[in-house]
Write a structure and sequence with these properties.
The chain starts with 7 loop residues before the first helix and ends with a strand. With 492 residues, it is an alpha/beta fold. Strand 15, helix 13 and strand 16 form a beta-alpha-beta unit. The protein binds 1,4-dihydronicotinamide adenine dinucleotide (NAI) and magnesium ion. Magnesium ion binds next to loops.
Protein backbone atom coordinates (compact mmCIF):
# COMPACT_ATOMS: atom_id res chain seq x y z
CA UNK A 1 0.00 0.00 0.00
CA UNK A 2 1.28 3.42 -0.87
CA UNK A 3 -1.49 5.80 0.05
CA UNK A 4 -1.12 9.26 -1.47
CA UNK A 5 -1.46 12.29 0.75
CA UNK A 6 -4.25 14.68 -0.19
CA UNK A 7 -2.87 18.02 -1.39
CA UNK A 8 -3.84 21.09 0.62
CA UNK A 9 -5.38 22.75 -2.46
CA UNK A 10 -7.57 19.67 -2.94
CA UNK A 11 -8.77 19.74 0.67
CA UNK A 12 -9.39 23.46 0.33
CA UNK A 13 -11.41 22.96 -2.85
CA UNK A 14 -13.53 20.26 -1.21
CA UNK A 15 -14.03 22.16 2.03
CA UNK A 16 -15.08 25.28 0.14
CA UNK A 17 -18.18 23.43 -1.18
CA UNK A 18 -17.47 23.90 -4.88
CA UNK A 19 -19.74 26.17 -6.89
CA UNK A 20 -21.11 26.07 -10.40
CA UNK A 21 -19.80 28.62 -12.89
CA UNK A 22 -22.47 30.70 -14.61
CA UNK A 23 -21.58 33.89 -16.45
CA UNK A 24 -18.08 33.58 -15.05
CA UNK A 25 -19.33 33.76 -11.44
CA UNK A 26 -19.29 31.09 -8.71
CA UNK A 27 -22.96 30.21 -8.40
CA UNK A 28 -25.15 28.20 -6.05
CA UNK A 29 -28.44 26.62 -7.04
CA UNK A 30 -31.37 29.05 -6.96
CA UNK A 31 -33.12 26.74 -4.50
CA UNK A 32 -30.01 26.55 -2.30
CA UNK A 33 -30.16 22.74 -2.66
CA UNK A 34 -27.03 20.62 -2.85
CA UNK A 35 -26.20 16.95 -3.27
CA UNK A 36 -23.37 14.87 -1.89
CA UNK A 37 -20.25 13.72 -3.71
CA UNK A 38 -18.95 10.31 -2.66
CA UNK A 39 -15.50 8.74 -2.87
CA UNK A 40 -16.18 5.27 -4.32
CA UNK A 41 -12.99 3.90 -2.72
CA UNK A 42 -14.39 4.52 0.78
CA UNK A 43 -18.12 5.19 0.28
CA UNK A 44 -17.55 8.40 2.29
CA UNK A 45 -19.02 11.81 1.45
CA UNK A 46 -16.24 14.18 0.38
CA UNK A 47 -18.19 17.34 -0.41
CA UNK A 48 -21.50 18.77 -1.57
CA UNK A 49 -22.25 20.59 -4.79
CA UNK A 50 -25.21 22.65 -6.04
CA UNK A 51 -28.25 20.77 -7.29
CA UNK A 52 -29.29 22.73 -10.36
CA UNK A 53 -32.88 22.65 -11.56
CA UNK A 54 -34.63 24.16 -14.54
CA UNK A 55 -34.23 27.78 -13.38
CA UNK A 56 -30.48 27.36 -12.95
CA UNK A 57 -30.18 25.80 -16.38
CA UNK A 58 -32.18 28.74 -17.79
CA UNK A 59 -29.69 31.14 -16.22
CA UNK A 60 -26.72 29.22 -17.62
CA UNK A 61 -28.22 29.08 -21.10
CA UNK A 62 -29.05 32.80 -20.97
CA UNK A 63 -25.45 33.50 -20.04
CA UNK A 64 -24.13 31.33 -22.89
CA UNK A 65 -26.59 33.00 -25.27
CA UNK A 66 -25.50 36.50 -24.31
CA UNK A 67 -21.85 35.52 -24.71
CA UNK A 68 -22.57 34.03 -28.11
CA UNK A 69 -24.68 36.88 -29.42
CA UNK A 70 -22.30 39.70 -28.51
CA UNK A 71 -19.42 37.74 -30.10
CA UNK A 72 -17.14 38.23 -27.10
CA UNK A 73 -15.59 34.88 -28.07
CA UNK A 74 -16.29 34.19 -31.75
CA UNK A 75 -15.44 37.81 -32.57
CA UNK A 76 -11.91 37.52 -31.20
CA UNK A 77 -9.10 37.23 -33.72
CA UNK A 78 -8.71 33.47 -34.48
CA UNK A 79 -5.10 33.57 -33.36
CA UNK A 80 -6.22 34.96 -30.02
CA UNK A 81 -8.68 32.09 -29.54
CA UNK A 82 -5.84 29.69 -30.32
CA UNK A 83 -3.75 31.32 -27.64
CA UNK A 84 -6.48 31.06 -25.00
CA UNK A 85 -7.33 27.42 -25.74
CA UNK A 86 -3.66 26.47 -25.74
CA UNK A 87 -3.21 28.21 -22.43
CA UNK A 88 -6.13 26.28 -20.96
CA UNK A 89 -4.41 23.06 -22.05
CA UNK A 90 -1.27 24.30 -20.32
CA UNK A 91 -3.12 25.18 -17.14
CA UNK A 92 -4.60 21.69 -16.97
CA UNK A 93 -1.09 20.27 -17.18
CA UNK A 94 0.27 22.72 -14.65
CA UNK A 95 -2.46 21.70 -12.20
CA UNK A 96 -2.21 18.02 -13.01
CA UNK A 97 -1.58 16.85 -9.43
CA UNK A 98 -4.53 18.70 -8.02
CA UNK A 99 -6.85 17.64 -10.84
CA UNK A 100 -5.73 13.99 -10.67
CA UNK A 101 -6.47 13.83 -6.98
CA UNK A 102 -9.88 15.39 -7.43
CA UNK A 103 -10.62 12.90 -10.23
CA UNK A 104 -9.38 9.95 -8.22
CA UNK A 105 -11.36 10.88 -5.11
CA UNK A 106 -14.48 11.59 -7.15
CA UNK A 107 -14.45 8.50 -9.40
CA UNK A 108 -12.24 5.94 -7.63
CA UNK A 109 -9.74 5.89 -10.48
CA UNK A 110 -6.19 4.83 -9.68
CA UNK A 111 -4.22 8.04 -9.18
CA UNK A 112 -1.59 7.17 -11.80
CA UNK A 113 -4.26 6.59 -14.41
CA UNK A 114 -6.10 9.75 -13.39
CA UNK A 115 -2.90 11.66 -13.93
CA UNK A 116 -2.55 10.28 -17.47
CA UNK A 117 -6.12 11.26 -18.17
CA UNK A 118 -5.59 14.83 -16.98
CA UNK A 119 -2.67 15.06 -19.37
CA UNK A 120 -4.85 13.76 -22.20
CA UNK A 121 -7.54 16.32 -21.38
CA UNK A 122 -4.86 19.00 -21.72
CA UNK A 123 -3.86 17.52 -25.07
CA UNK A 124 -7.45 17.79 -26.31
CA UNK A 125 -7.36 21.56 -25.69
CA UNK A 126 -3.95 21.85 -27.33
CA UNK A 127 -5.19 19.98 -30.39
CA UNK A 128 -8.34 22.07 -30.76
CA UNK A 129 -6.42 25.29 -30.18
CA UNK A 130 -5.19 24.79 -33.76
CA UNK A 131 -8.66 24.90 -35.27
CA UNK A 132 -9.81 28.53 -34.94
CA UNK A 133 -7.33 29.45 -37.66
CA UNK A 134 -8.52 26.65 -39.95
CA UNK A 135 -12.27 27.14 -40.33
CA UNK A 136 -11.98 27.36 -44.10
CA UNK A 137 -14.87 27.65 -46.52
CA UNK A 138 -14.91 26.74 -50.23
CA UNK A 139 -15.61 28.30 -53.59
CA UNK A 140 -18.09 26.30 -55.65
CA UNK A 141 -17.90 25.41 -59.36
CA UNK A 142 -21.16 27.00 -60.59
CA UNK A 143 -21.69 28.99 -63.82
CA UNK A 144 -19.49 31.88 -64.97
CA UNK A 145 -22.03 34.52 -64.02
CA UNK A 146 -22.15 33.37 -60.43
CA UNK A 147 -19.68 33.42 -57.58
CA UNK A 148 -20.65 30.97 -54.86
CA UNK A 149 -18.76 30.41 -51.66
CA UNK A 150 -19.34 28.74 -48.33
CA UNK A 151 -18.84 30.08 -44.85
CA UNK A 152 -18.32 27.95 -41.76
CA UNK A 153 -20.10 29.47 -38.79
CA UNK A 154 -20.48 28.35 -35.19
CA UNK A 155 -23.77 26.62 -34.36
CA UNK A 156 -24.43 28.80 -31.32
CA UNK A 157 -25.13 27.70 -27.75
CA UNK A 158 -24.05 24.11 -27.16
CA UNK A 159 -25.11 21.83 -24.35
CA UNK A 160 -22.79 19.07 -23.21
CA UNK A 161 -24.08 16.20 -21.06
CA UNK A 162 -21.38 13.79 -19.97
CA UNK A 163 -20.90 10.56 -17.99
CA UNK A 164 -18.77 9.68 -14.99
CA UNK A 165 -16.25 7.26 -16.48
CA UNK A 166 -13.75 9.87 -17.80
CA UNK A 167 -15.01 13.09 -16.23
CA UNK A 168 -12.36 15.61 -17.30
CA UNK A 169 -11.61 13.99 -20.64
CA UNK A 170 -15.32 14.01 -21.50
CA UNK A 171 -15.57 17.66 -20.45
CA UNK A 172 -12.63 18.42 -22.76
CA UNK A 173 -14.19 16.47 -25.63
CA UNK A 174 -17.29 18.70 -25.41
CA UNK A 175 -15.81 22.06 -24.49
CA UNK A 176 -12.67 22.18 -26.67
CA UNK A 177 -14.32 21.66 -30.09
CA UNK A 178 -17.33 23.82 -29.14
CA UNK A 179 -14.98 26.72 -28.37
CA UNK A 180 -12.54 26.05 -31.19
CA UNK A 181 -15.35 26.57 -33.69
CA UNK A 182 -16.65 29.71 -31.99
CA UNK A 183 -19.56 28.39 -29.92
CA UNK A 184 -20.42 28.90 -26.26
CA UNK A 185 -21.40 26.03 -23.97
CA UNK A 186 -23.33 24.85 -20.94
CA UNK A 187 -21.82 21.65 -19.58
CA UNK A 188 -23.55 19.30 -17.18
CA UNK A 189 -21.15 16.78 -15.68
CA UNK A 190 -22.46 13.49 -14.30
CA UNK A 191 -23.89 13.74 -10.78
CA UNK A 192 -21.44 11.04 -9.64
CA UNK A 193 -18.34 13.01 -10.72
CA UNK A 194 -18.83 16.79 -10.97
CA UNK A 195 -15.58 18.03 -9.46
CA UNK A 196 -12.96 18.31 -12.19
CA UNK A 197 -15.40 20.00 -14.59
CA UNK A 198 -16.11 22.59 -11.87
CA UNK A 199 -12.40 23.22 -11.46
CA UNK A 200 -11.96 23.36 -15.23
CA UNK A 201 -14.45 26.23 -15.45
CA UNK A 202 -12.24 28.19 -13.04
CA UNK A 203 -9.07 27.40 -14.99
CA UNK A 204 -10.79 28.50 -18.20
CA UNK A 205 -11.37 31.97 -16.74
CA UNK A 206 -7.73 32.07 -15.68
CA UNK A 207 -6.71 31.15 -19.24
CA UNK A 208 -8.71 34.10 -20.58
CA UNK A 209 -11.92 32.46 -21.79
CA UNK A 210 -14.45 35.32 -21.50
CA UNK A 211 -17.18 35.06 -18.85
CA UNK A 212 -20.29 33.23 -19.99
CA UNK A 213 -18.53 31.25 -22.73
CA UNK A 214 -18.17 28.15 -20.53
CA UNK A 215 -20.91 27.53 -17.97
CA UNK A 216 -20.93 24.45 -15.75
CA UNK A 217 -24.13 23.34 -14.01
CA UNK A 218 -24.16 20.42 -11.61
CA UNK A 219 -27.27 18.35 -11.07
CA UNK A 220 -29.17 15.19 -11.81
CA UNK A 221 -30.00 13.82 -15.22
CA UNK A 222 -33.77 14.01 -14.92
CA UNK A 223 -33.57 17.59 -13.63
CA UNK A 224 -30.65 19.61 -14.96
CA UNK A 225 -29.85 17.22 -17.85
CA UNK A 226 -33.41 17.04 -19.08
CA UNK A 227 -33.81 20.83 -18.78
CA UNK A 228 -30.72 21.37 -20.92
CA UNK A 229 -31.69 18.77 -23.55
CA UNK A 230 -35.14 20.26 -24.04
CA UNK A 231 -34.11 23.92 -23.82
CA UNK A 232 -35.36 25.97 -26.76
CA UNK A 233 -32.39 28.30 -26.71
CA UNK A 234 -29.80 25.51 -26.96
CA UNK A 235 -28.74 24.94 -30.58
CA UNK A 236 -26.83 21.71 -30.19
CA UNK A 237 -26.52 18.90 -27.66
CA UNK A 238 -23.54 16.60 -27.43
CA UNK A 239 -24.31 13.64 -25.19
CA UNK A 240 -22.19 10.74 -23.98
CA UNK A 241 -23.82 8.09 -21.83
CA UNK A 242 -26.23 5.19 -21.93
CA UNK A 243 -28.25 4.27 -25.01
CA UNK A 244 -31.39 4.49 -22.90
CA UNK A 245 -30.76 8.14 -21.99
CA UNK A 246 -29.57 8.84 -25.55
CA UNK A 247 -33.11 8.06 -26.70
CA UNK A 248 -34.50 10.46 -24.08
CA UNK A 249 -32.13 13.21 -25.27
CA UNK A 250 -33.35 12.71 -28.81
CA UNK A 251 -36.99 13.08 -27.70
CA UNK A 252 -36.21 16.09 -25.52
CA UNK A 253 -34.45 17.80 -28.41
CA UNK A 254 -37.40 17.65 -30.78
CA UNK A 255 -39.04 20.87 -29.54
CA UNK A 256 -36.58 23.17 -31.33
CA UNK A 257 -35.01 20.44 -33.51
CA UNK A 258 -31.61 21.16 -32.05
CA UNK A 259 -28.67 19.30 -33.52
CA UNK A 260 -27.71 16.21 -31.58
CA UNK A 261 -24.65 14.01 -31.45
CA UNK A 262 -24.82 10.86 -29.34
CA UNK A 263 -21.97 8.68 -28.08
CA UNK A 264 -23.71 5.74 -26.48
CA UNK A 265 -23.09 2.26 -25.18
CA UNK A 266 -21.12 -0.62 -26.58
CA UNK A 267 -20.51 -4.33 -26.34
CA UNK A 268 -17.32 -4.33 -28.28
CA UNK A 269 -15.76 -7.53 -29.64
CA UNK A 270 -12.12 -8.28 -28.93
CA UNK A 271 -11.13 -11.01 -31.40
CA UNK A 272 -8.13 -13.28 -30.87
CA UNK A 273 -6.78 -15.47 -33.69
CA UNK A 274 -4.22 -18.29 -33.23
CA UNK A 275 -1.58 -16.43 -35.27
CA UNK A 276 -1.52 -13.49 -32.82
CA UNK A 277 1.32 -12.71 -30.46
CA UNK A 278 -0.35 -14.53 -27.57
CA UNK A 279 1.33 -12.71 -24.72
CA UNK A 280 0.48 -9.35 -26.18
CA UNK A 281 -3.07 -10.45 -26.99
CA UNK A 282 -3.71 -11.75 -23.48
CA UNK A 283 -2.34 -8.67 -21.78
CA UNK A 284 -4.07 -6.33 -24.22
CA UNK A 285 -7.42 -8.11 -23.95
CA UNK A 286 -7.12 -7.98 -20.16
CA UNK A 287 -6.56 -4.21 -20.16
CA UNK A 288 -9.24 -3.85 -22.83
CA UNK A 289 -11.88 -4.99 -20.39
CA UNK A 290 -10.47 -4.20 -16.95
CA UNK A 291 -8.98 -0.75 -17.44
CA UNK A 292 -11.08 1.81 -15.55
CA UNK A 293 -12.85 -1.16 -13.92
CA UNK A 294 -14.50 -1.95 -17.24
CA UNK A 295 -16.33 1.39 -17.22
CA UNK A 296 -15.39 2.31 -20.77
CA UNK A 297 -17.85 2.60 -23.61
CA UNK A 298 -15.36 0.83 -25.91
CA UNK A 299 -14.44 -1.89 -23.40
CA UNK A 300 -13.66 -5.18 -25.13
CA UNK A 301 -16.34 -6.95 -23.13
CA UNK A 302 -16.89 -9.79 -25.59
CA UNK A 303 -13.66 -11.72 -26.06
CA UNK A 304 -14.02 -13.84 -29.20
CA UNK A 305 -11.37 -16.56 -29.31
CA UNK A 306 -10.76 -19.02 -32.13
CA UNK A 307 -11.63 -22.48 -30.86
CA UNK A 308 -8.20 -24.08 -31.44
CA UNK A 309 -6.59 -21.80 -28.83
CA UNK A 310 -9.60 -21.26 -26.60
CA UNK A 311 -8.46 -23.10 -23.43
CA UNK A 312 -4.87 -21.96 -23.67
CA UNK A 313 -5.93 -18.34 -24.18
CA UNK A 314 -8.25 -18.39 -21.19
CA UNK A 315 -5.34 -19.60 -19.08
CA UNK A 316 -3.18 -16.67 -20.25
CA UNK A 317 -6.02 -14.21 -19.72
CA UNK A 318 -6.64 -15.43 -16.18
CA UNK A 319 -2.90 -15.23 -15.45
CA UNK A 320 -2.72 -11.66 -16.81
CA UNK A 321 -5.76 -10.72 -14.73
CA UNK A 322 -4.10 -11.96 -11.57
CA UNK A 323 -1.54 -9.19 -11.98
CA UNK A 324 -4.27 -6.51 -11.88
CA UNK A 325 -4.10 -5.12 -8.38
CA UNK A 326 -7.45 -4.07 -6.99
CA UNK A 327 -7.36 -1.21 -4.50
CA UNK A 328 -8.33 2.36 -3.59
CA UNK A 329 -7.83 5.14 -6.11
CA UNK A 330 -5.46 7.15 -3.95
CA UNK A 331 -2.94 4.31 -3.69
CA UNK A 332 -0.24 4.59 -6.31
CA UNK A 333 0.15 0.80 -6.53
CA UNK A 334 -3.48 0.27 -7.51
CA UNK A 335 -4.11 -1.03 -11.03
CA UNK A 336 -7.89 -1.22 -10.82
CA UNK A 337 -10.09 0.89 -8.56
CA UNK A 338 -13.70 0.46 -7.43
CA UNK A 339 -16.68 1.00 -9.70
CA UNK A 340 -18.18 4.47 -9.49
CA UNK A 341 -21.19 4.03 -7.20
CA UNK A 342 -23.17 1.66 -5.08
CA UNK A 343 -25.78 1.55 -7.83
CA UNK A 344 -23.16 0.58 -10.41
CA UNK A 345 -21.74 -2.07 -8.06
CA UNK A 346 -25.20 -3.61 -7.67
CA UNK A 347 -25.71 -3.52 -11.41
CA UNK A 348 -22.40 -5.26 -12.06
CA UNK A 349 -22.78 -7.95 -9.38
CA UNK A 350 -26.36 -8.41 -10.62
CA UNK A 351 -24.99 -9.20 -14.08
CA UNK A 352 -22.49 -11.62 -12.59
CA UNK A 353 -25.44 -13.47 -11.02
CA UNK A 354 -27.24 -13.40 -14.36
CA UNK A 355 -24.18 -14.88 -16.10
CA UNK A 356 -24.03 -17.72 -13.58
CA UNK A 357 -27.73 -18.44 -13.94
CA UNK A 358 -27.41 -18.42 -17.74
CA UNK A 359 -24.92 -21.26 -17.36
CA UNK A 360 -21.66 -19.43 -18.07
CA UNK A 361 -18.66 -20.41 -15.97
CA UNK A 362 -16.74 -17.98 -13.76
CA UNK A 363 -13.03 -18.64 -14.31
CA UNK A 364 -11.76 -15.56 -12.45
CA UNK A 365 -13.24 -13.24 -9.81
CA UNK A 366 -17.00 -13.25 -9.59
CA UNK A 367 -17.59 -11.37 -6.35
CA UNK A 368 -17.60 -8.06 -4.60
CA UNK A 369 -14.17 -7.59 -2.98
CA UNK A 370 -15.41 -7.14 0.58
CA UNK A 371 -11.96 -7.36 2.10
CA UNK A 372 -11.33 -3.85 0.75
CA UNK A 373 -13.95 -2.33 3.05
CA UNK A 374 -17.02 -0.27 2.23
CA UNK A 375 -15.80 0.94 -1.17
CA UNK A 376 -17.51 -0.31 -4.33
CA UNK A 377 -14.95 -2.94 -5.29
CA UNK A 378 -15.80 -5.73 -7.71
CA UNK A 379 -13.24 -8.38 -8.64
CA UNK A 380 -12.14 -8.52 -12.25
CA UNK A 381 -14.40 -11.28 -13.51
CA UNK A 382 -14.05 -13.57 -16.49
CA UNK A 383 -16.85 -15.78 -17.80
CA UNK A 384 -16.03 -18.72 -20.08
CA UNK A 385 -18.50 -20.88 -21.93
CA UNK A 386 -20.52 -17.85 -23.01
CA UNK A 387 -22.92 -17.95 -25.95
CA UNK A 388 -23.40 -14.72 -27.85
CA UNK A 389 -27.14 -14.78 -27.20
CA UNK A 390 -26.74 -14.70 -23.42
CA UNK A 391 -27.60 -11.45 -21.67
CA UNK A 392 -24.00 -11.05 -20.43
CA UNK A 393 -22.92 -11.06 -24.09
CA UNK A 394 -25.63 -8.71 -25.34
CA UNK A 395 -26.15 -6.06 -22.64
CA UNK A 396 -23.70 -3.36 -21.66
CA UNK A 397 -22.59 -4.19 -18.10
CA UNK A 398 -20.12 -1.32 -17.75
CA UNK A 399 -18.02 -3.05 -15.15
CA UNK A 400 -15.09 -5.48 -14.87
CA UNK A 401 -16.84 -8.44 -16.48
CA UNK A 402 -15.53 -10.21 -19.59
CA UNK A 403 -17.45 -12.78 -21.60
CA UNK A 404 -15.26 -15.24 -23.55
CA UNK A 405 -16.99 -16.69 -26.61
CA UNK A 406 -15.44 -19.36 -28.88
CA UNK A 407 -15.54 -18.77 -32.67
CA UNK A 408 -14.63 -21.04 -35.64
CA UNK A 409 -12.81 -18.79 -38.14
CA UNK A 410 -12.63 -15.25 -39.55
CA UNK A 411 -16.09 -15.25 -41.10
CA UNK A 412 -17.68 -16.65 -37.98
CA UNK A 413 -15.81 -14.11 -35.85
CA UNK A 414 -17.16 -11.23 -37.98
CA UNK A 415 -20.67 -12.67 -37.82
CA UNK A 416 -20.60 -12.98 -34.02
CA UNK A 417 -18.88 -9.59 -33.67
CA UNK A 418 -21.74 -7.93 -35.56
CA UNK A 419 -24.47 -9.80 -33.76
CA UNK A 420 -25.21 -6.95 -31.32
CA UNK A 421 -27.29 -3.77 -31.27
CA UNK A 422 -24.08 -1.80 -30.69
CA UNK A 423 -21.27 -0.73 -33.01
CA UNK A 424 -18.77 1.39 -31.14
CA UNK A 425 -15.42 -0.38 -31.44
CA UNK A 426 -13.72 -3.67 -32.21
CA UNK A 427 -10.27 -5.08 -31.56
CA UNK A 428 -8.48 -7.79 -33.50
CA UNK A 429 -5.31 -9.62 -32.54
CA UNK A 430 -3.53 -11.34 -35.45
CA UNK A 431 -0.26 -11.23 -37.35
CA UNK A 432 -1.98 -12.06 -40.62
CA UNK A 433 -2.30 -8.77 -42.47
CA UNK A 434 -5.17 -9.76 -44.72
CA UNK A 435 -7.13 -11.31 -41.85
CA UNK A 436 -6.72 -8.08 -39.87
CA UNK A 437 -8.05 -5.96 -42.70
CA UNK A 438 -10.88 -8.37 -43.52
CA UNK A 439 -12.08 -7.98 -39.95
CA UNK A 440 -11.58 -4.20 -40.06
CA UNK A 441 -13.85 -4.02 -43.11
CA UNK A 442 -16.30 -6.61 -41.89
CA UNK A 443 -17.17 -5.25 -38.47
CA UNK A 444 -19.79 -2.56 -38.10
CA UNK A 445 -18.03 -0.27 -35.64
CA UNK A 446 -16.80 3.31 -35.54
CA UNK A 447 -13.30 2.33 -34.41
CA UNK A 448 -11.19 -0.77 -35.12
CA UNK A 449 -7.95 -1.49 -33.28
CA UNK A 450 -5.48 -3.99 -34.73
CA UNK A 451 -2.98 -5.47 -32.25
CA UNK A 452 -3.75 -2.88 -29.58
CA UNK A 453 -6.88 -1.66 -27.89
CA UNK A 454 -8.32 1.44 -26.24
CA UNK A 455 -6.27 3.94 -28.24
CA UNK A 456 -7.47 7.51 -28.55
CA UNK A 457 -5.98 10.64 -30.01
CA UNK A 458 -7.51 14.08 -30.47
CA UNK A 459 -6.63 13.86 -34.17
CA UNK A 460 -8.77 10.78 -34.70
CA UNK A 461 -12.53 11.02 -34.97
CA UNK A 462 -14.60 8.82 -32.70
CA UNK A 463 -18.22 7.69 -32.74
CA UNK A 464 -20.57 4.78 -33.18
CA UNK A 465 -22.54 2.73 -35.67
CA UNK A 466 -26.02 1.36 -34.92
CA UNK A 467 -27.31 1.97 -31.37
CA UNK A 468 -23.91 3.22 -30.24
CA UNK A 469 -25.05 6.60 -31.51
CA UNK A 470 -24.30 9.01 -34.32
CA UNK A 471 -22.01 11.89 -35.11
CA UNK A 472 -18.25 12.00 -34.76
CA UNK A 473 -16.18 13.79 -32.14
CA UNK A 474 -12.49 14.77 -32.28
CA UNK A 475 -10.40 15.17 -35.39
CA UNK A 476 -11.34 16.98 -38.57
CA UNK A 477 -14.87 15.56 -38.58
CA UNK A 478 -15.78 17.33 -35.34
CA UNK A 479 -16.13 20.42 -37.50
CA UNK A 480 -19.38 19.00 -38.91
CA UNK A 481 -20.85 18.72 -35.43
CA UNK A 482 -19.90 22.20 -34.25
CA UNK A 483 -20.43 24.39 -37.30
CA UNK A 484 -23.17 25.43 -39.69
CA UNK A 485 -22.38 25.66 -43.38
CA UNK A 486 -23.68 28.69 -45.23
CA UNK A 487 -23.72 28.94 -49.04
CA UNK A 488 -23.51 32.49 -50.37
CA UNK A 489 -24.57 33.24 -53.98
CA UNK A 490 -23.30 36.32 -55.72
CA UNK A 491 -24.59 37.15 -59.20
CA UNK A 492 -21.91 38.85 -61.25
P1 LIG B 1 -26.66 7.89 -17.86
O1 LIG B 1 -26.72 7.73 -19.32
O2 LIG B 1 -27.94 7.97 -17.11
O3 LIG B 1 -25.81 9.21 -17.50
C1 LIG B 1 -25.03 9.98 -18.39
C2 LIG B 1 -25.35 11.46 -18.25
O4 LIG B 1 -26.69 11.69 -18.67
C3 LIG B 1 -25.26 12.00 -16.83
O5 LIG B 1 -24.73 13.31 -16.87
C4 LIG B 1 -26.70 12.06 -16.40
O6 LIG B 1 -26.95 13.01 -15.41
C5 LIG B 1 -27.40 12.42 -17.69
N1 LIG B 1 -28.81 12.06 -17.77
C6 LIG B 1 -29.45 11.02 -17.20
N2 LIG B 1 -30.75 11.04 -17.49
C7 LIG B 1 -30.97 12.12 -18.26
C8 LIG B 1 -32.11 12.68 -18.90
N3 LIG B 1 -33.30 12.12 -18.78
N4 LIG B 1 -31.95 13.81 -19.63
C9 LIG B 1 -30.74 14.38 -19.77
N5 LIG B 1 -29.64 13.90 -19.18
C10 LIG B 1 -29.73 12.78 -18.45
O7 LIG B 1 -25.79 6.73 -17.26
P2 LIG B 1 -25.84 6.16 -15.76
O8 LIG B 1 -27.24 6.07 -15.27
O9 LIG B 1 -24.89 6.92 -14.96
O10 LIG B 1 -25.29 4.68 -15.99
C11 LIG B 1 -26.18 3.63 -16.35
C12 LIG B 1 -25.57 2.78 -17.42
O11 LIG B 1 -25.38 3.56 -18.58
C13 LIG B 1 -24.20 2.22 -17.13
O12 LIG B 1 -24.26 1.06 -16.38
C14 LIG B 1 -23.66 1.99 -18.50
O13 LIG B 1 -24.11 0.78 -19.02
C15 LIG B 1 -24.26 3.10 -19.30
N6 LIG B 1 -23.29 4.19 -19.48
C16 LIG B 1 -22.60 4.23 -20.63
C17 LIG B 1 -21.65 5.20 -20.83
C18 LIG B 1 -20.89 5.25 -22.09
O14 LIG B 1 -19.98 6.07 -22.21
N7 LIG B 1 -21.19 4.42 -23.04
C19 LIG B 1 -21.34 6.20 -19.80
C20 LIG B 1 -22.16 6.11 -18.63
C21 LIG B 1 -23.09 5.11 -18.49
MG1 LIG C 1 -28.95 7.19 -15.25
Amino acid sequence: MAQIEVLSEVSKFLEGSPKMTIGGKPTEAGSGKTFTVIDPSTAQVITEVPRAEMGDVDAAVASARAAFDDKRWSGLRPGKRTEVLYKLGELIKRNINELSQLESLDSGKPIKIASGEMWMAGEVFRYFSGWPTKMFGETNPTTDDQFVYTLREPVGVCGGIIPWNFPLIMAAWKIAPALAFGNTIVLKPAEQTPLTAMRLAELALEAGVPEGVINVVTGFGEEAGQALAQHHDVDKIAFTGSTEVGRKILHASEGNLKRVTLELGGKSPNIVFPDADMKRAAKGSMFGIFLNSGQICTAGSRILVERSIHDEFIESLVAATASMRLGPGMDDETGMGPVVSEQQMKRVTGYIDIGRSEGAEVVSGGNRAEELGDGYFVEPTIFAGVRNDMRIAQEEIFGPVAAVIPVDDVDHAIEVANNTIYGLAATVWTNDLSKAHRVARGVKAGTVWINSTGQYDPSTSFGGYKQSGFGRELGVHSMEAYTELKSVWVSL
